[in-house]
Design brief:
The protein contains two helices and five strands. The chain is α/β, with parallel strands linked by helices. The mean pLDDT is 95.
Length: 71
């Protein structure tokens, strides 16, 4: 996986934990996780995520998020 798009997760309303570590993700669309209102754990570690991405915009609306790994 290199790119995460909104369409990939648009119907993932009930997902609480999402582990996408050890991929080749380098780009994430701004609205990708916007429908995941109960997401509490997100692991994007060991990817190639562009450092210029606006992470606050990307993660806005994830009010239940308690764990985030971007290492």
């Amino acid at each position: 996986i290199e790119v995460l798009k909104f369409e990939m997760f648009s119907q993932a309303f009930g997902v609480e934990d999402l582990f996408l570590s050890q991929n080749r993700i380098n780009f994430i669309e701004n609205r990708t996780f916007s429908n995941m209102k109960i997401l509490s754990k997100l692991d994007l570690s060991q990817n190639r995520i562009d450092k210029n991405l606006n992470m606050s915009l990307l993660l806005s609306g994830l009010t239940k998020l308690k764990y985030l790994n971007l290492s």
